[in-house]
User: Fold Naringenin-chalcone synthase from Dyadobacter luticola.
Amino acid sequence: MLIDRNTIKLLRIPFSFFLMPLFLFAYSQAETVVHRQALWAFLIIHLLVYPASNGYNSFVDKDEESIGGLEKPPMPTIHLFYLTLFLDTLATVLSLIFVNTLFAVCLVLYILASRAYSSRQVRLKKYPVVGFLTVAFFQGAFTYYMSIAGVSGAGLRLNQANIYVLLGCTFQIAGAYPLTQIYQHRQDLKDGIVTLSYKLGYLGTFLFTGLMFLLCNVFYYLYFTERDLGMIFYIVQVFFIPIVAYFGYWLFLVWKDRTQANFRNTMRMNWVAAICMNGCFLVLIIIDRNPLSYLSAIETAVPDYCYSQEALSDFYIRSTDDITNKRKIKIVAGKTGIEKRYSVLADFDKKHEDFNFFNKSADLLPEPSLTKRMEVYQQEATRLSRKAIEKIHGFEEIKNSITHLITVTCTGLFAPGLDVELMRELRLKPTIQRSSVNFMGCNAAVIALKNADAICRSQPNARVLVVCTELCSIHFQKQYNDDYLLSNLLFGDGSVAVLVDSKPSGEGLHKVEIDGFNSMILHNGYSDMAWRLSETGFIMNLSSYVPDLIRKNIKPMMSATGLNPDDFKHWAVHPGGKRIVDDFAAALELDKCLLMPTYNVLKNYGNMSSPTVLFVLKELVEKAKPEHKGNRIFAAAFGPGLSIETMQLRYV
Assistant:
């Protein structure tokens, strides 16, 4: 079979440029993108299916006057018919091989609808309303759905937002289609076809198009606002301005002279609309493929055993007969600002003969070994972590979308490890990329979020689960120097699970964008916060100089990084101790009311090491109000070294 130039010409391949916008829109909005499949889907639709549809329509109609893309179309031959069959078959086979079955099925349905529209046997185009609805649906909502299937490899979830976008696409085509028929009235009538455009008349077609585009915009607005992407809607409107301007100009010309409803003006309208809309959706692709990172969920958990600070200090006091030590314990406990703490251990309010973890003696000797402490950690850390994770709204539905897992801990280690245990017990995908932040202390959560932020900014559609779990109470030791007085009377157990996404999502959580991070190591505090492993647990260094070091350095650190305390209306500060929080407020001249979430967490939980600052952030975010949109949040935590880790966030 010889294919001549006229046959190729009737495929009107350049006309596919006018039909590209919905595919690009789908590409920009797809939750996941399989790039190889997306490329094949694009080529199949625009170089095979659309040209085959154009060619079949030309073969059946045998147009003698102008048609879309061709002012003087040549007469078709039987070669054109066979070529369209070949292109359709090739498109279907390539779809099955290189894209996916769902896309191939959608493609076949689209081809059948296209043939039913043009063929002499069915000829849907001769029915003004039915023909119009067929084109609006199949070139609108159906094409968007088909494109999503090709781009992402999965069907579009028919939730409220996606129903809005399908309606928006349908009304977009519903507006454009009658306008493309406005110059063909005479030719259609010769063929016995009465189009909707003919029934509406010249001015009626313009008014109808305007109404359809208005409805299209309404549903696009609902779609973007439902997804908390209202700014994207306004970006779209900027690109629509030239389309509206030319539409109004053309309407004015037709109002004055009906002959202006001609082929050339129609093609100008097509070019203006296609260039603007393709440009718009390419910009959306660029925006979408340069993601930010957002907190989608923060959930906390504590063990079942809750103890008042008085009960815990009494346990400590009963471990010694030294009057001085007893007095020091009581004084320090009263100054901590803590009312209660939680522990995985059941011993702290029992008589010594009923102990399960500690030795059944009044003096607690011999103390539990490091081996025993790690056994408790291995048993309890996974359980407590699950408790936090499973509070995430709809976790069972979203867990398969988690791409990365980061675990954080400094109070216990074992292998395979907390990350693998969580993957196994929660039945997470075995392909999740995992990492751990271990033994880095109270500011490790900020370091983990820094890693999650980097992942989300570099990988579109990344979803990172960060889990911080600490069992500080298992390291209680029978020591009475200043370091242990502080650690035994400050620390408790807790866990936090945080979802970090490359797109804003989450229910019941005010949208929070991660804005940046800063770090500082104070080498002159190297020995003031540190610990080492020993046969009986951690050897602690936690001096009273830590608050002074923070107080003297936090303001210079902010100044050095270009941060002004006045720019932040909300503060999430790690409550390492009451004096640390007091001195932090004094150093930055902050009203202590701004640090109430920090004081509240210290009062109700104590210092739980790495999860603590996220307990504070959760309390802060849960109290957010709509008027806080745009406000900035400053988070800070302090760890061994002495190291200061800060994070800036923004309500969006």
User: Anything to note?
Assistant: The radius of gyration is 33 Å. The chain is about 50% helix and 15% strand.
